[in-house]
Amino acid sequence: MLRAPCWPSPVFTLVVLSGLVIGFWSVPAPRESAAAGDAESPRNDRFTPAMLADRIEHAMQKYSSLEYTVEFSVRENTGAQWGAKPSEPIWHTFHGRYTYRGEGPRWFLDEDSYTWSVGDRHLTPQHLTSGFDGKRHFHFNSLLSKLVWGDNDFGQQRAQPRNIFWKAGVTSESLLAALRKPEAKVVRRELIDKHPCVVVEVLWIDDWDKSRTPRRLETTISPEQSFLPLKAVWERGGALEARAELRGLNQTSDGLWYPLMIRTSRPEKSPFGPLRIDRITSLKVRSAVSGNAFRCDEFQFEPPIGADVVDRRAGTAWHNDPWWSELAPWISEKFKWPQPDWFELVNLRNQGTFCDPKIAGQAAPAIEAAQWLNGDPGGWKREGRFITVLYFFGGDLIDPHPKLCAALQAWHAARRDDGIELIGIATSLTLDATKRNVEELGITFPVAMDRPSDRRGSFGKTFDAFQMRSYSGVLVVDPAGIVRLIEAGGGQTDRPTEALDDLVSALFEAAGKNPKFAAAPQPPMRADLASRRLSDPELQAIEAEWKRRAGLTAGQARMRGTITFAIADDDVDQPSDETAMVKAVPQLWLLTTNTPGGYFYATDRGRIAEIRCDDDGRFELGNLRKGTYSLVFTRPGFASAERKVWLSADDSEITADLALNFGDAIAGQVVDSDGLEVRGASVRATRRHLDPKHPNYWTTAHLPDGPIAVHSDGRFEFEGLYEGTYTFEVSAAGYEPLTLEMIKPGSRDLKVVLKKAARNK
Hints:
Elements: H1 49-61, E1 65-77, E2 91-103, E3 106-115, E4 124-132, E5 137-141, E6 146-149, H2 155-159, H3 161-165, H4 172-179, E7 185-192, E8 195-204, E9 215-222, E10 228-236, E11 239-251, E12 257-265, E13 275-285, E14 308-311, E15 316-319, H5 324-335, E16 369-373, E17 387-393, H6 401-413, E18 420-426, H7 431-440, E19 447-450, H8 461-465, E20 473-477, E21 483-484, H9 498-510, H10 516-519, H11 536-550, E22 557-566, E23 581-591, E24 599-603, E25 609-612, E26 618-624, E27 627-634, E28 641-647, E29 653-655, E30 658-661, E31 666-672, E32 682-689, E33 698-699, E34 708-709, E35 715-718, E36 725-731, E37 738-743, E38 750-754
Helix pairs in contact: 1-4
């Protein structure tokens, strides 16, 4: 595991800069409050909106080393879709919880929430874990069982205190930007809970808004309570956009104020949902001074056994089977697997220049770097350079940069010997973040930190000089130093990098050059062939090696548990006296490609362990080796159950308890609307739902094979079923098909009524 350096917790010192008040009036410097640890505020009648914005940013810094927990409820319309025609609303109110901890650049977020697709009438629970451990970003989704290294899921933006306590119904950046507008003005003062507050109103029209719709913000700031926005109302065209309110303010022993509840409301037609309530259930400052500084391991995350792992830096993916760490070196040496995924190059297809087209054909302006990372590459016509590819990107590690950096480096590695040089231009806004990300992603090409520009909203002087309209884009400087643009998605359709490749190849051809990369054998680049796949002989060899290693020694791992048997009161048929059986089947799981989703698994039948439970349902399996196991629990008359479990080491011990439900059959009769049996009907099981409370969880594993024909009396029966609930499709010639949903094993008297199909006139 990659270990982050263990940094001491920062201790923040309150500094008041005289520049904050120059141009207004003289204000005495705040003195430190011994009781609260926060600066006493100047008189409220001396604040301007811009001063409030500066003080808010200063207050935000004090929340950089803490841990807090939030419980929230959200009302959402899952029938809504941005830009789509209005549809019937599907309202849900769901609840979630998250715990956030942060210290300097490091952060960790653990959250329980729900997900859905547009039109879903059922919510799907999910558990998310994300963070930055000081060396790399990560995020894990338990629903997908996938861990991604080197990619930011915006967890810090979702949960960082500065973005929650000062969100004010929209975003904290929007609040600060509004307060700094020249139109902002203090309109009144209020006394709230004995604390003097400042009310600011801002009326403006956004520069980008062609409709010239007026905007309005009214917010109430409490200087004595960490400059928190107690109230905020956002309007657009006189209509409410969002309203936020902080309630029940509390103060820590370190002097920080925070709300016990944040209520945000919006119109029902808002795509963000009309209501969200956040309740802060705990908050504590973490620092060396208070004696509860963060430990390094509180920001780290181990890859879970049985999860897929994607490494953006290496461009590879694998399944974290318990045998993977031992087999991986052998597989790498034998088959050079996993290889960097050429499918990542598809990400270059949609990369264009995204700048003003007028710059095409002009002489390339100089790169105005405030600082070079990985060395200064020199001017456009440096000796040995034929073509320069410029990649403009933001400093934060956000999509699409991790994939694009890996793709560009792979593309560049095959072409650098022909005099092609790749140079990155990062915005002037994120020096520290860019340095961390260059190291995290293993970026080897030179990266220029752009020089700040005086232009409002600019990413930097070089961005301005190349007339960039976005923080991301790729362009080419030809041998004469002339700018050449790339059209996103342009070129042919059988190669994911065609737009960039076609332009570069044309420049070589125009110069009468034969580049080495054109003659070298290239990997398949069509999108349907781009993902590297292990061949059948390779998979067979890996399976044989796994079985050989597993048989070299006996293990000491154990599984134990207790099976209980649930019998409904109205069950007529009583279960047999036979006890339950437990079978443990050793399996090896591998990704068949470098893209999670497709798996190969092998079964070692020579090591299958099977045992009968005692009369109390207890069982114990011993002398097992590490690995992935499929546990199958059976008892006559009960729905069978299967669980995947993992023994991480040869001396592991795990407990697997479960309940078997009485009833392993589903039976019924197919009749017409007159109650007469329908002959020739067929019934097919199409889905097995793992949890009746969450219909979106379903599988096709252990479904009865094929459809069954009903008997002459219209009756049918499925036997030997597994746990869960089933979806069936019933069809018959001359009748409308019918779908039966959420039918549980043990249902023996289903009455399935088919309607006659309407005849075509």
